[in-house]
Amino acid sequence: MKKVLVFLFVVMAALSAKAQVYTGGSLAIWGADESFTFSVAPEVGYHLTDKWAVGGMLILQYAKANDVKVTGFAFSPYVRYTFFENKVLRLFADGNVGVQTAHVKGSHDNTNGFEVGVRPGLEIKVTKHLSFLAKFAFLGYRDDYLGYSNGGGLSVDGKDLSFGLYYTF
After folding, report:
1. pLDDT digits (tens, 9 = 90+) for 24-36
2. What domains are defined for the chain?
C-alpha cells in the first residue's frame, strides 16, 4: 500500500511541476426588438502538459423576450487538446459535456438539457500571463441546452462565438 501511495504522489508531483492554472471567462449582452439576453461564464482550467488541459465553465444566463423571463444555469467541464502552438498563437479543441437547468418566471417546472461535443478555439498570448481567447463553432449534439435548438451537427452561429480574457498563474 505504501508503494502505491508513494507512486501516486510522485506521479502527481511530476504532473503538477509543468502544470499551470488559468482562469478567465466571457460576458455576453445581446438585445434586439423585444428581447434581451445577458450571460456571464467564468472558467477555470489546469494545464496537465503542453498539449492537454482540463477545465470547467459555469454559465449564468438571463433572457427576456416580450413578457417571458428565463434564468438559466449550466456547468460544462471539458478536456482541451492543443494541436498547434507557437510563441503567440495556440489552436485547440475542447471536448465538453454540458448540463443545464432553466426556469421560466411564473412556471413551476424547470427545463433541463445537455450538450456533448467539440468546440474549436484559438488563444492569442498578449503577455506571459494574459491571453485573449475565442471559441467559434460547435460540433455535437444539444437537447434543450441554453436556448439552442435540439439536434446534432455543426453549428457556426453567432451564438456559438465567444470571446474572453484568460489569466495564467
Report:
1. 998 888 887 788 8
2. 2-168 (2.40.160.20)
